[in-house]
Write a structure and sequence with these properties.
Blueprint (H helix, E strand, L loop, with lengths): L10 E5 L10 H9 L2 E6 L7 H7 L7 E6 L6 H20 L4 E5 L8 H12 L5 E4 L4 H9 L10 E5 L8 H6 L2 E5 L5 H10 L6 E5 L7 E3 L2 H6 L6 E6 L5
Parallel strand pairs: 1-4, 1-5, 2-3, 2-4, 6-7
Antiparallel strand pairs: 7-10, 8-9, 8-10
Helix pairs in contact: 3-4
The site of S-adenosylmethionine has 23 residues, from strand 8 and strand 10.
Length: 243
């Protein structure tokens, strides 16, 4: 008897942009309408999903919707277990021949759970076809709102995951002309101090929940300091701004 190998579904890693449904790309919308299953990330405590909400804004998505919860535990091994469990759920659908989209805010290849899960999936399914659909990143949307160059000519851009204040080193700030700080929520004061020390405090923009209804943007340092911690927040600082 002839062997009948399973025909795997295709996996898409889909960026849905920072929050404004108008910043979904045409390819993202096309994929979301086409796939059999759409996986989105939900918060452990909130059950809210920004990426899921953006999928809701697209008409004509008929795929099964599967929310995935990811541990934010300090121990990497705990997170790893969670990536594997969620990867296995996706693998199960792919093995049924279903096309699957894993949606992420911003771009899927920029500090995203997608890349951890993707590695787990491709470790088990070597012949899987994968398409990563880029999304507009959170910081591109914030920069665009300022109508100012992020970098020009020979300038250097640093993108810093400021989840601890130690990550924001003088060495990085010396090298960069413009620095983007993601995950700023617990360390705004430490970042602002580092910027001052490195003469980067004259041109700062801070944004919370960019593209969502509660969006807030300010360049006023005392206002930044007064804000409560917000996970969806970032800062951009320029050293040699021309305008
Ligand atoms: C896990 S990273 C995800 C980055 C995302 N993949 C991207 O391309 O922007 C989460 C961090 O991105 C930033 N972020 C994402 N969406 C945002 C938004 N709508 N407004 C402000 N910051 C946002 C925040 O710094 C947040 O802590």
């Amino acid at each position: 008897m002839e062997n009948n190998p399973i025909k795997l579904g295709k996996l898409y890693g889909v960026g849905v942009g920072p929050g404004d449904p108008k910043l979904l790309t045409l390819r993202t919308v096309e994929v979301l309408r086409d796939v059999d299953v759409i996986f989105s990330v939900v918060g452990v405590n909130t059950k809210n999903s920004i990426s899921g909400g953006l999928v809701d804004s697209v008409s004509g998505c008929t795929g099964e919707r599967v929310p995935l919860m990811f541990s934010m535990a300090k121990k990497m091994s705990d997170r790893e277990v969670c990536w594997q469990e969620n990867a296995d759920l996706i693998i199960e659908k792919l093995k049924q021949g279903k096309s699957c989209a894993f949606v992420t805010i911003g771009d899927p290849l920029l500090f995203s759970t997608y890349t951890y899960v993707l590695r787990k999936i491709t470790a088990k399914l070597k012949k899987l076809t994968v398409e990563t659909v880029p999304g507009i990143t959170s910081f591109q949307a914030v920069a665009a709102s300022q109508n100012k160059a992020m970098v020009e000519d020979k300038q250097i851009l640093a993108v810093v995951p400021a989840w601890t204040s130690e990550v924001v080193t003088d060495q990085i700030l010396e090298a960069a002309d413009t620095a983007v700080f993601l995950k700023t929520y617990q360390h705004k004061d430490a970042i602002l101090e580092s910027l001052k020390r490195n003469n980067m405090d004259a041109d700062i923009v801070y944004a919370e929940r960019m593209g969502l209804s509660e969006q807030m943007i300010t360049d006023d340092i005392s206002e930044i300091q007064a804000r409560d911690n917000e996970y969806l927040s970032l800062m951009i600082a320029r050293k040699n701004s021309k305008s």
